[in-house]
Amino acid sequence: MGFVRTTPPRPVEVAAVFPELAPSARPAIRLHPRPGSPSIRDSSVGGPLLWPAQEPWPHCEDAHLHVDTGFRQSPTEVRLQRRLQSRWRPDDRPPTFTPEEEALKERNAAWLAERFDAGPPWPSECPVPMVPVAQLFLRDIPLLRPPGQADLLQILWCPYEHEPDNKPATALFWRAAADVVDVLAAPPEPYEADWPGYVPEPCVLAPEAITEYPNSLDLSPELAEMLADWSRWQAAGAGVDGSYAESPCDFYSIHLGNAPGWKVGGWPPWGRTDPNPRYCAVCQVPMVPLLTVASWEWDGGEGHSWAPEEDQAAALAGSHYAGQDPSQPTKVEVGSADNLQIYVCPTSPEHPHTDLVQ
């Protein structure tokens, strides 16, 4: 890990003001992905995977209807367009591709034409190669609880939304990195993506261990009532802005509960729905959050208090050029700027995982 990101101290020490919440504290690791050039030996988001050459690359076998979403581009085209956006400035001439990018664009166009000329079945109807989402080594993310001798987690998804939940289908693989001797040199790519937000930008990570508390929706009625008692905040000398006197729970939700962004462990970021527990399909025990795939690293407005100290200036800068918002380094956008949470069985990591959009 070549850089550091540091979550600013929370404005209130939750367990000190509300010791009743102390038993609810959970460890989490914020991944802090940032655009870079990760290798197959690095923990990453959207980077290349340490994938055995002898093991078939995962494909999504579900039906993929060719619905006209107004967007149809290959992952290569998506990333080339992002490169142009990263160089765009309103006071300059429109950026152009470099010779290397032009050559890549031409090779990609030739590949697409060859596939199209092949005729049916169309790529969206065939088994679709899955796209790398995250690769996490235990040495970097000690919060992982892999099975057996595994020390590497790899997560991929299909770049198409799937019914009935309108989200990408996910696949999860644990493996021992030392067992991968011959690495797959050229993994297959999907012909196209349903949405550019399902093509993660390659990012390096700066993992940071933090402590989280439940989302306000996860609290019991008694605890929620306690947080809503403004006199408790005043008696503790918490120094919370008086503008929250009518709704101190909002202060807790925005600044104190669970962190936004890509993270391992911690508490779920409810919002689209009320808490929706997941149960293992094999042993029926309640499942636990493994990975949060986030559309944004921090929210606008007051939510920028979660922006790392090293990014506070950029977070406060306000408007940004197209495609250059520092709070969306991975360029992932799930649903309507939501989060996709992957859950695993705490009894056995080898039991089937599940996922949920929030």
CATH top level assignment:
Mainly Beta
Residue share in β-strands:
15-25%
CATH architectural label: Roll
What count of structural domains?
A: 1
Runs in which pLDDT lies below 50 for 5 or more consecutive residues are none
Description:
The protein is an alpha+beta fold and 358 residues long. The protein has one domain (14-357): Roll (Hypothetical protein YwqG fold), CATH 2.30.320. 18% of the residues lie in helices and 19% in strands. It is built from seven helices and 14 strands. The chain has helices at residues 14-17, 75-87, 99-117, 221-227, 230-235, 248-256, 312-316, and strands at residues 26-30, 34-35, 44-45, 59-60, 128-129, 131-137, 152-162, 167-175, 203-204, 208-212, 263-265, 288-294, 339-344, 354-357. The strands form three sheets. The chain has a six-stranded antiparallel beta sheet, with no helix packed on it. It has a six-stranded antiparallel beta sheet with strand order 2-9-3-6-7-8, with no helix packed on it. Strand 7 (152-162) and strand 8 form a beta hairpin. The longest helix is centred in the first third of the chain and has 19 residues, at 99-117. The model has no long low-confidence stretch (mean pLDDT 88). InterPro entries: YwqG-like_sf. This is DUF1963 domain-containing protein.
